[in-house]
Amino acid sequence: MSTLKDVAQRAGVSSITVSRVINTPELVKEKTKDKVMLAMAELKYVPNAAAKSLAVNRTGLIDVFIPSDIDLNNPFVMHFIAGISNALSKRMYPFLILRDKKKEHLCDGYIVTGLLRDEINEFYAYASERDRPVVLFGHTNLPKVSCIDVDNFAGAESITEYLIRQGHRKVAMINVDENKDYTEDRYNGYCSALEKHKLAPPPNAYLQAVNNVQGGHDAALSLLETTDCTAIFCATDTMAIGVCQAIMEKGLRVPEDISVVGFDGLGHNLLSTPHVTTVQQPVYRIGEMLAEQLLKELDGKSGHINKLVKPDLIEGKSVSTISLD
């Protein structure tokens, strides 16, 4: 196997220069860096990852924290992890999925998702005690935490307005029964769209449910008994599947009798017949962006950021048009 000294001799530079190209390439002139990189390629030299980590005072490991109550088979989680993996693999940076903070080990920083509001502050305190940066899928007012989130308010507002444009004036909502920012944002977006069009939700037309198929199913049965809504906005596509099942159990049709829309666009919207019109979260891309941001902060190339990414509306076949004549 080729050594660092072999690369230095082939490139006509010192071993220290080769080390700098590997560990701190931004400090090396482009011409010199190109010579070293060419020599490394010709000799098939592979840098020692452990040695590189020691050189920059790092462990060479990122922790991705996903709370234990979130199923790793969830499409959201799978898209999120895939995006993180793609970004980190470009730097040959391994990561570990962390489910329990009590399992203490060394790492360079954290990528976090799925936290309740009070848990964000708690996790920040945990990371600060260890002097490690945190990037969050979500949003927070903590000034030292970079966060990127889907614009849940805008997404919920746009899909509710979509229903209104199709002639629906009695729009119900089934939200997730969790104390998280996204649930409040989606509810507020729904309300904003109704208010813009001077509409009020039908009586008893807002319910919260467990975020699974059964939760959506049971909530829909309750809605169908207590309200005369013509459309139901589900805060997740998973619940929308259950809502469609409940509507059919009552002898009704989607969308001919009741229209259904969801939120996520990560695959569950395609598991119902008809396919559910939904708001698609760019979860994969946000996973990439968070990983890229954390690496920039570790390299000292970026301050903290706070971004919202607007989602897209994806039309399925679950919405009918109501004539207003």
Topology, element by element:
Elements: H1 4-11, H2 15-23, H3 30-43, H4 49-55, E1 62-65, H5 75-89, E2 95-98, E3 109-112, H6 117-129, E4 134-137, E5 146-150, H7 152-165, E6 171-176, H8 181-196, E7 206-209, H9 213-226, E8 231-234, H10 237-249, E9 259-261, E10 278-280, H11 283-298, E11 306-309, E12 312-314
Helix pairs in contact: 1-2, 1-3, 5-11, 7-8, 9-10
Listing every helix as H and every strand as E from the N terminus to the C terminus, the arrangement reads HHHHEHEEHEEHEHEHEHEEHEE
Largest sheet: 6 strands, parallel
What percent of the residues sit in helical stretches (DSSP H or I)?
40-55%
Instruction: Characterize the overall form.
Output: elongated
Which spans have pLDDT < 50 for at least 5 consecutive residues? none
Strand order of the largest sheet: 2-1-3-4-5-11
User: What value does the Rg take, in angstroms?
Assistant: 25 Å
Whole-number mean pLDDT? 91
